[in-house]
Recover the amino acids of this structure.
């Protein structure tokens, strides 16, 4: 265990030292859960109030392996259309559909 007095504020642990049992934050979990009942596990671009899902939420889920890019949107190339991965289903306590 690291001595707390030697930690540098704002510095993150290296990826190799990160826990393999990473759990989604509340915001990540809310976003991931919205894809569970969608065809192909499609994740929404907007929240229930019509606001764009923060790119940081999307990127962090991609980095964790819970979501994967699905396809490029030719009319809106800056929109990142994603779907749940098998790990994404498991991260929110759901069983992935066959072939996910």
């Amino acid at each position: 265990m690291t001595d707390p007095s030697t930690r540098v504020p704002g510095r993150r642990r290296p990826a190799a030292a990160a826990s393999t049992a990473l759990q989604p934050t509340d915001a990540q979990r809310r976003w991931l859960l919205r894809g569970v009942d969608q065809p192909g596990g499609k994740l929404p671009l907007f929240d229930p109030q019509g606001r764009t899902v923060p790119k940081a939420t999307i990127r962090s889920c991609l980095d964790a392996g819970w979501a994967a890019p699905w396809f490029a949107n030719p009319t809106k190339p800056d929109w990142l259309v994603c779907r749940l991965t098998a790990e994404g289903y498991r991260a929110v306590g759901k069983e992935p559909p066959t072939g996910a």
